[in-house]
Amino acid sequence: MNQSNSGESAAAERVMPARPGGFTYSAADEEKRRGVRRMKATATGLLAVVAVIYALAKWAQSSGAGGWAAYVAAAAEAGMVGALADWFAVTALFRRPMGLPIPHTAIIPTKKDQLGVSLGEFVGENFLSGDIVRGRLRAVGIGSRLGAWLAEPEHADRVTAELATALRGALTVLRDSDVQAVVGEAINRRADAQEIAPGLGAMLEKIVTDGGHHRVVDLVCVRAHDWLVEHSDSVMDAVTGGAPGWTPRFVDRKVGERVYKELLRFVTETRDMPDHPARGAIDRFLADFAQELQSDTDTRERIERLKSEVLGRAEVQDLIASAWSSVRAMMVAAAEDERSELRMRVRASILSLGARMTSDDRLRAKIDGWLEDAAVYVVTTYRDEITLLITDTVASWDPEQTTRKIEAHIGRDLQFIRINGTVVGALAGLGIFTVSRLLGA
């Protein structure tokens, strides 16, 4: 007895490895099998008790004990028949009774694949129907529940953190060289496909009309004046250096000083006088140039050639490629910082979305519709693959191990069928015998 218990304990602690395509037979399964064995012993013991009662009742009947013995014998006999019939039925599910090749026995190991096909068809017809999925999702009200869940600050924080983690993961997986190549190719293709001169001309025309270029002109005048003040010698040297060799040096110097003064006066007046003729000339030049950019064929062609030359330079391509590295570093830093503007805005958007989903019926209905359509699409599109997964999975199970697994989980309840069969059979036999006696009387 002790050896048996120790053997069972060792079996309970052992975890059977899964065969290819099969289950993992765990210690919990072994514990359930022990429960099945106990119920088998109980059901078999009840059958033995009924058999003993039958034998004693028949002996008492033959010894003239009285009419009661016949009733007891009839009840016990019917109880044995019920017990044996249910034993056969329960055993036939998992194996061949007494090893005999009786048809329609050992149903689970021999019909496993057919059961898998039937299970897949049952799931496909009753669970993967578009109408059933849509109706179930509509009854659940995912939009309302999701909105209420997202409206909670702690839930919004959690979603924001998960999105940040996903963003960091995606940015880590992406290779810089691949993204840089894609970005560069996209920019170049878009630039080649679209002429930029008309757009530049329209923009320049708008700027000139609104006077937006005046501040730029002011800045240029200020910087030009400051430069002339600081580099007067350079201007005079440039003038005297271009003078003929036969002119006296003092004459060259006087001419240089005169040119410098006139130039400084011109720049100063242009800087200080908003209505200076030079400013008007600049306005007319920019306006004419804006029109040429939009309508003059030669100007537009020259701008396009210039665009191609600029984009073709290695420095520009390197700048385009390096832009991704800067953007990625900025996004990773923002995703890691809980107080970053990116995460704060995402969190605020999630809270706002949750509040709107709980209060806005149209938005909630729209989200419910999207979710229903997505679920129905997945179900109807991949229903065959899902049912085939069930069928192939069941087909890959090892028959013997499958039988052991199923018996461990439902065998205990099936043994109650044997017990019930014994009791019900005895009661039925007693009733039938009683009615027969009454009718015979």
TrEMBL record:
Entry-linked InterPro entries: DUF445
Transmembrane segments: 41-57, 69-94, 419-439
Source superkingdom: Bacteria
A Pfam family per the record: DUF445
Entry keyword set: Membrane, Transmembrane, Transmembrane helix
GO CC terms, sorted: plasma membrane
Full protein name: Uncharacterized membrane-anchored protein YjiN (DUF445 family)
Taxonomic source organism: Streptomyces netropsis
